[in-house]
Write a structure and sequence with these properties.
Elements lengths: L12 H4 L15 H7 L2 H11 L3 E5 L8 H11 L5 E5 L11 H6 L4 E5 L12 E4 L7 H14 L8 E6 L7 H12 L5 E3 L5 E2 L14 E2 L8 H6 L4 E6 L4 H9 L4 E6 L4 E4 L2 H18 L3 E6 L7 H14 L3 E5 L6 H4 L7 E5 L2 H4 L10 E2 L1 H7 L14 H6 L5 H12 L6 E2 L6 E2 L18 E3 L6 E3 L3 H8 L23 E2 L2 E2 L8
Parallel strand pairs: 1-2, 1-3, 3-4, 5-6, 5-9, 9-10, 12-13, 12-14, 14-15
Antiparallel strand pairs: 4-7, 6-8, 10-11, 16-17, 18-19, 20-21
Protein name: 2-(3-amino-3-carboxypropyl)histidine synthase subunit 2
Subcellular location: Cytoplasm
Cofactor: [4Fe-4S] cluster
Amino acid sequence: MAENTAFSTSGEEAITRTIDISQDEVPGELSAEEIENYYDIERTAVEIEKGNYKRTALQFPDELLRHSVPIFRRLKARLSPGRELYVLADTSYGSCCVDEVAAQHVDADAMVHYGHACMTKTSRLPVIYVFGKKPVDSEDCASKLLQSLDASSTSLEGKTLVLRHDVAYAHRADQILEKLRAAMSIYAPFEYSPIPLMSFPVSPNTSTQGETTVATNGHDTTSDSQLDDAPRNDIILYVGGESLSLTNLLMTHAHCEVHTYDPKTGTARLESGRTNKLLMRRYVAVQKARDADVFGILVGTLGVAAYLPLISHLRKVLSRAHKKSFTISVGKLNPAKLANFLEIECFVLVACPENSLIEAKEFLRPIVTPYELEIALRAPQSWTGRYVLDFEKLLVADPNNSEDAAEGSDREEEDPEQPVFSLVTGKYRHAKRYGETNADPNDPGSALILRNQDGTVALADSAAGAFLQARTYRGLEVRIGQDAPAVLEQGRSGIARGYADDHSSGG
């Protein structure tokens, strides 16, 4: 049993584990009135009654768990009899995602998500969002952002100003927008897309592009998808501190100038200078993915509407490129978990946009996003700097048509014996090719071969199977005909402090 300790942890770890919580993310001590206002108790109760939800799950991140009991009691007091509430904690993946799987364990028909949210579309349950209300000085925010614009000496002619903010400042967005519009409307048009306070499930095959954007100066509205897809003369004004949300904004809008205001420090600055460094680090990960032949598709979410179609898409893309792929679900990522899969040379993480970018310095293998994988598998080594983290945008184009199909055909026409130059090692390498061109990637039987006369089987062209044979520890060996089957016996019943048949615990 000693060999198994590397693959599991004791139950004590769940109690002794230390949770790192930033003090900036935790609201201070709140009075009863402040809890009512900060967590929108009245609005939440109204939405539950309006939707006639019988069983509602309340999802809390670790830093807000201490407020779960007073929130539960105040909500319960406002709901009509017969409505049940359940508190969810310790989410399976990132706390910014809606944990629909945990909610299904209590057969919930709606969820209330507290704290920071990535706002990805869900596929099962309606969600009521309660972001909290972090303090921000609207007057100072508008003033500092304008000062940052003046310091950058950027001409506003022909440009559009776009206001973005962290979800915790949504309650002050209208005030900030009003002050900015009053000062800048004569120079440039403003656009703002309000963050919804509730979302409803969508079909995985339903496109969610084209969110409504409010034009604050009477000009035509423009969708977020247009802002993301087409480089325009936009200047983004972002309210919020350094976070994954800001990092994703800089990555996906590298063509835009981004000015940020941090309400905690009261400072504003031009952030666009960070974009090149972020893209350079991701470009290195792309080059490492080009050198890999065996990939692991990591399931990093179970709540985003399009995650299953994206996994199927990635499998097809890797199969067309003659790469071997394995689909792995490990929950929250850590280096120890992924180190168990030494045969995998690169991981592809399918997660919400805020959890997709992993700085893999401490990980044994590189971790790339689905978009980075598609870049790495292209025949020409080119990247325009455009970056996509949204599942829907990766699946909009049919991979069998147009540009993707052309790139795939170019890849297949390459001479398999021709060496490929690696920018990571500075040497030429011969890429391995798994699977036949005319083989059905969905036929699992074609990959099995007889390994020896003992009746065991192995996977043909499987890097994992070859690596398994070289390991000193391979798990339990099959001993067919040597070990008699064990007799089934009735197990103990009761609770841990004293089982029903444990005579030593009495007295």
